[in-house]
Specification:
The complex is a heterodimer. Chain A contains 5 helices and 5 strands. Chain A is an alpha+beta fold. In chain A, the strands form 2 sheets. Chain A has a 3-stranded antiparallel beta sheet with strand order 1-3-2. A two-stranded antiparallel ribbon of chain A has the order 4-5. In chain A, strand 4 and strand 5 form a beta hairpin. Chain A is globular and about 35 Å long. Chain B is of the alpha/beta class. Helices cover about 30% and strands about 20% of the residues of chain B. In chain B, about 55% of the residues are buried. Chain B has 15 helices and 19 strands. Classes of the chains: A alpha+beta, B alpha/beta.
């Protein structure tokens, strides 16, 4: 089974990926107010992610949700670095998973309000 | 006049009588000096975080939310609930309500069968439990499985075996080894803190309010969430379905307040988010009422919907709207397990017909709804329908509507982005941000749970 991870793309993020091949696949949402990059996640990787982040879960649509902001940021950075939305990007993220988990722990208690 | 006769006001309480086990004045104070006393302590998860406080169950029993239940269940009643979801009196009830203790706690209290046990909360007299039985709970893992079901035994709705990630299963799994059964009465009615005090409308008061408003068709909306516009559509459209030949009169929003899973919104934002819908005029204040029930959610989807039906019938609602993934978390249950219960029953749980069609069942009627989604082409919300049995989801419009997932929305919020106006009312978002500033986080965290356990919703 495959799952999905949705990365929200604002203007700043869009600038970083606009020349990559998948930039044309961004999904416009809710009349264009938000865009999303959908990444397919295989079963094994999904399990690793859920294990790393206890609050994370799979929603009714099969999306991995309630993931730490630090993890999502790392995924985006890995996508930019590898130029891919495939397995290699997630492997890049898991090289630093312990550091990301540490960041996520702090984030569990405080995220500055807008 | 015709309608007034047809739609009789004030549905009867579940079990026929509204429980009100709340004592005040001298009658109450006579219990305060009892030497047999026991401090109510929270149930803790594996990491020590509070995941339930039985004081909420005492309040919900005492003030009649769980009518006709009058106390914590003896073992044969627990067995009856597990076998066919019925109290010993025969009335439907979904969950064992158990006051669990350790042997040491019981010994220290010096409590035995026949005693009046004073339950204290934060060291202050709170309630009295008339001990009818003390019994040993079975293996808690098996107990939790029996409460929620397993794919083998309850394959019609259970898709995946329950585990520690399911907050309701974890509550039963984490219970102490002994249980004390007996009727309870609140003997020191607590004062609610802000903002809870504005939403505390127990069944007797709720019924009076509904009567004063002249509502005859009252649609209950269960919530553990701040409302996005998909929820608003469900509430508004359910009003048209509920009456059958005329729209309903009002929506009774009832938020479940208590320990929740990390990642849910904080309770204060849930209440004020819903309140914002009527203060900002998206609902007329005469057609919309926001209330709360104290209960540590079990996330039991169809079983939880049965409890919700009981609570809201007791509060005076005539109909209950049920949407997709009702009171669910994860993918343990089928997304439309609740609709399964309310259209076919759940024979594997001993419920052989829909709850409102059974003897000693519920009087409240279901309004089974599918999902609404935003269609950018139509520029409005469209109904998606339900995928259930032979019926397949089929949008009303011919475009590609976009679902509003609560978890997606949480992702937008935590990343510091303002939700699109077609997804969330700005006033609702402001309620989230208000409490984010208080707690440093918009959602439930372990820190929030510990803080909530320290302060609770009440003062004595």
């Amino acid at each position: 089974m495959t799952y999905k991870l949705g990365l929200l793309i604002d203007e700043k993020r869009y600038e970083a990926i606009k020349n990559l091949p998948f930039a044309g696949q961004l999904k416009s949402m809710f009349g264009g107010e938000i865009r999303m990059l959908e990444i397919e996640i295989d079963d094994e990787t999904a399990k690793k992610i859920l294990q790393a982040f206890p609050a994370a879960r799979v929603d009714a649509r099969g999306y991995l949700e309630d993931l730490p902001v630090a993890f999502k940021r790392a995924v985006f950075e890995a996508i930019v670095k590898t130029g891919s939305v495939g397995r290699e990007a997630l492997e890049e993220v898991f090289k630093n998973i312990e550091a990301i988990k540490e960041l996520a722990k702090k984030e569990k208690e405080y995220v500055p309000p807008p | 006049m015709f309608f007034a006769n047809l739609y009789m006001p004030v549905i009867e309480p579940h079990g026929g009588r509204l429980v009100y086990n709340v004592l005040e004045g001298d009658a109450a104070k006579s219990y305060w000096e009892l030497s047999t006393r026991l401090e109510i302590k929270p149930t803790q998860g594996p990491d020590g975080a509070p995941i339930r406080n039985p004081y909420r169950e005492v309040m919900s029993i005492g003030y009649g939310f769980f009518s006709p239940l009058e106390g914590f269940m003896p073992w044969n009643e627990v067995e009856s609930v597990l076998k066919e979801r019925r109290l010993l009196s025969g009335w439907l009830f979904p969950f064992p309500i158990v006051f669990d203790v350790t042997e040491e706690e019981l010994k220290t209290a010096g409590a035995k069968v026949g005693d009046d046990l004073l339950l204290t909360l934060k060291g202050r007299p709170f309630a009295v439990l008339k001990i009818e039985e003390v019994y040993k709970l079975p293996d808690r893992r098996e107990f939790a499985d029996a409460v929620f079901g397993t794919p083998d035994r309850n394959g019609e709705v259970v898709k995946k075996r329950f585990d520690e990630k399911h907050p309701g299963w974890l509550i039963y799994r984490s219970m102490k080894p002994l249980a004390v059964a007996g009727k309870v009465a609140v003997v020191n009615p607590p004062r609610f803190r802000e903002p809870y005090i504005r939403f505390w409308v127990p069944p007797a008061a709720s019924r009076k309010l509904i009567e004063a408003k002249g509502w005859k068709i009252v649609v209950a909306h269960q919530t553990r969430n701040v409302p996005h516009i998909g929820h608003e559509m469900l509430m508004k459209r359910a009003m048209f379905v509920a009456g059958g030949d005329r729209p309903g009169d009002g929506v009774l929003v009832n938020a479940i307040i208590g320990a929740k899973r990390p990642g849910d919104y904080v309770d204060e934002a849930i209440l004020e988010g819903h309140e914002a819908l009527n203060t900002a005029g998206y609902f007329h204040h005469n057609r919309h009422m926001v209330t709360m029930t104290l209960w540590d959610m079990r996330y039991g989807n169809p079983l939880e919907s049965l409890l919700h039906g009981i609570i809201r019938q007791n509060m005076g609602a005539t109909h209950h709207m049920f949407g997709r993934d009702h009171a669910a978390t994860g993918d343990y249950y089928d997304s439309y397990a609740t609709q399964h219960l309310w259209t076919r029953g759940l024979p594997s749980y001993g419920i052989n017909a829909p709850p409102h069609q059974l003897d000693k069942g519920l009087k409240i009627r279901p309004v089974n709804m599918g999902e609404f989604a935003y269609c950018p082409k139509c520029g409005e919300y469209t109904y998606l329908g339900i995928s259930f049995g032979e019926v397949k989801e089929s949008p009303l419009c011919g475009h590609t509507p976009e679902r509003v997932s609560g978890s997606f929305l949480r992702g937008v919020i935590i990343e510091g982005l303002r939700p699109p106006r077609v997804v969330m009312r700005p006033e609702v978002y402001e309620a989230i941000v208000k409490w984010w500033r208080v707690y440093g986080y918009p959602f439930v965290t372990e820190k929030y749970l510990r803080l909530k356990e320290d302060t609770l919703e009440v003062e004595l």
